[in-house]
Amino acid sequence: MSTNRVKLYAFGANDFRPVLHSDLLSNAIRAALLGTALGLAMVPGMTLAADASQVSSTYAIAPGPLDEVLNQFARQAGITLSSTPALTQGLQSKGLHGQYSAEQALGVLLAGSGLTAVNQGNRTFIVQAQPAEAALALPDTDIRGFTLGNALGSMEGYNATHSQVATKSSLALVETSQSVSVVTRQQIDDQGSQTVAQAMRYTPGVMTNPYGATHRYDYVAMRGFNDGSVDNIYVDGLKSMGDNGTYSTMQVDPYFLERIDVLKGPSSVLYGRSSPGGLVALTTKKPVFTAFHQVQASVGTQGQRGLGFDTSGPLDADERIAYRLTGLADASDTQFDHNKEERYAIAPSLSIDFSEDTSLTLQAYLQHDPNGGYHGGNPANGMLSKRNGVRLSDHFFEGEPGIDNYERTQQSFSYQFEHRFNDVFTARQNFRYQDSDVSMDQVYSAGWADADGTVLTRAYTGGDERLHSYIIDNMVQAEFFTGIAKHTLLLGTDYQRRKADVSWRYGTVDPLDAANPQYGNGNLRVLGENRYQRRLQQTGVYLQDLVELDQWRFSLGLRQDWVKVSEDNRDTDTRVSDKRSNFTTRAGVLYLFENGLAPYVSYSESFNPNTVSDQDGKPLAPTEGTQWEAGIKYQPPGSDNLYTASVFRIEQENLASKQPDEDFYRPVGQVRSQGLELEAHVQVTDNLKLLGGYTYTDIEYSKSMPSLVSSGLDNKGNSPTQAPEQMVSLWADYNFRQGALDGLKLGGGVRYVGHSWADAENSRKVPSYTLVDASLGYDLGKLGLKGLDVRLNANNLTNQRYITSCASLNYCYMGEERNVSATVSYQF
């Protein structure tokens, strides 16, 4: 989406005043703020960035496009710099080397451009044309300079330059000492992604379909770690707050997203409990202050059809208040017999700029899924190979149409409040309340009924769940100098609380002949019901310091968490509870060469308290992980192309695993994962964009699984299931901009996923597979139909049959067959 409003290149201190919601949180925040005051008082020789026009700093900024050079300078200088895109378009800068004040530096950077920078005071500069009569007239309300702007906003193309996922502040990807990948809105659209997981298919280090062609949850396995949950999904900086041990998991449709940031490796220092493999941060669409309206319709194979709308703009003449309303209705028959998907969702939001320094965004998200589609697996013998001459088809359904059901209703309210106190201190507060209702009945395969026949034994599980949760994150940020070193100090405290009321049923259903399935006589027998109330509370305090010293970049962080989990059995009137505290750290160092090379090394930790119990009803010990990562990033001067190579080693213990036919969890020993990831985001020409990725993951059990040892087996040295050793991806998009084909867009990609293992004993392989995707689009505005676009997407173009992975020899998961969709959108 384009806009003619002010373009902000970088940002000074900003953000917002905490709002307290409980005594516990109040005490934690007071302690955090006291820690900030004490920490600042103890810094020797600290020079506050009181006046950017007087403080001299050393810069080493390479030549390049003027807007990119100004962006880099303003971020390093800690100033707010505003301009319009038209002023800097097509202009180049010779860069900046040496020690300058902000005013001196801007004079050098703008030399020969016909532009000048006017000091507005309060660390704010406006770029305008010369002579004076051509000066850019900007009302004060147009100067919006908060720290996260260029890390969260919309962008064109595939190449994001900044992200906030690794540091909770806007930081250039090339200067981040950990692997971060970004999926932009345009990439989501061009590749026709129907789920968040699908949108990350071309991201190295990420396996997005471990449970096959299901769309019910956004399962993401990262760097070989897959615990069967979606606990690594974050929305607008806050954990999605689903419950691992239940079916109540929040899912956001990708139509409502602006971008997806993927952080590889442990990240507990800033986020508390998290997976050692990494996390996925979703940024939703926010109001914009330029009128924008879009409607779209789509149809496709498997009965897919949908309608969506997205509208935004200012509500007042001063443009201090803006709204956005996004909605979607979508349905599909799915590739599996007797299964349907259906979704209705709407997201209203409102942004208010109270002043240049204070901003509030209010959001709501309401989603109802009357039909959740297919979610099942079948035995390897029958999926990976024929059984008695029968191989289960891409459409096979082992359930029972009259019984199977999945209905979910979720709603959330959230806000992001930002306030800039002065040139040094800023604050932010993010809050979300979430509510979810799930009703589910599922008939599933329990293995073959005899030694060599084609009859499947079937079992039943059902559940009615109600989940309530809220999470709040408060941050105070200070930007200051100690000598020539610039510090961005972040002190925060977060609190989250979750309660899930669940009622689970279990039973049996008559067998099914897979060679000749006959439905309608399931004969459900419910054998029992268990009722629980599960609770989680977490309070965390964290401190981070980002240091810029000449061309060095240092990142230091620490965090203390207190977590309490409990499970009340309402049938036996018993309670199991567990309290844990955990201390985690992170450190990284990076050197930014003038030629765009940036080698780095980092260390990070994670922990995740297990809210699930073993077969004796005792909570499992928290999962803990540590990672060493080293790599090199390269961003050619004057370009936003980014090349990344990283090697990593993660050690993790106490991972919880649940077999589909068990109602308890098991510890799986200790796991070690190490590997290599390569990634490239390249704008080759104005017409051609490329995405490339390679993943090599060597993951194994470094300590035996206790349950196997007790049965006389040993899995030490074996690889976990659902962890392919190699993955390769390449996507290209070409946009014709002239001649007879002007307006035409062609895209295509190849994804290779290497073999994985079907069981913990590594007795059987899941074969590798290669998939081809394609897209075709046309801007009908070239034919006089302004604002109208059409797009055709085909996934798995060759319609290859493949098994994505197996959780065990009894549960293997069918991959997505070829699906083709056509989308027409109109923007006005």
Automatic annotation (TrEMBL):
Which UniProt keywords are listed? Cell outer membrane, Ion transport, Iron, Iron transport, Membrane, Receptor, Signal, TonB box, Transmembrane, Transmembrane beta strand, Transport
InterPro entries from the xrefs? Answer: Beta-barrel_TonB (IPR000531), Beta-barrel_TonB_sf (IPR036942), Plug_dom (IPR012910), Plug_dom_sf (IPR037066), Secretin/TonB_short_N (IPR011662), TonB-dep_rcpt-like (IPR039426), TonB_rcpt_CS (IPR010917), TonB_sidphr_rcpt (IPR010105)
Recorded hits in PROSITE patterns, A to Z, give:
TONB_DEPENDENT_REC_2 (PS01156), TONB_DEPENDENT_REC_3 (PS52016)
- Give the residues annotated as coiled coil: none
User: Which parts of the sequence form the motif TonB C-terminal box?
Assistant: 811-828
Q: Where in the cell is it found?
A: Cell outer membrane
Matches recorded under Pfam families: Plug (PF07715), STN (PF07660), TonB_dep_Rec_b-barrel (PF00593)
PANTHER family attached here?
A: FERRICHROME IRON RECEPTOR-RELATED, FERRICHROME OUTER MEMBRANE TRANSPORTER_PHAGE RECEPTOR
- The protein's name is TonB-dependent siderophore receptor
> Which source organism does the UniProt entry give?
Pseudomonas parafulva
Q: What is the lineage of its organism?
A: Bacteria, Pseudomonadati, Pseudomonadota, Gammaproteobacteria, Pseudomonadales
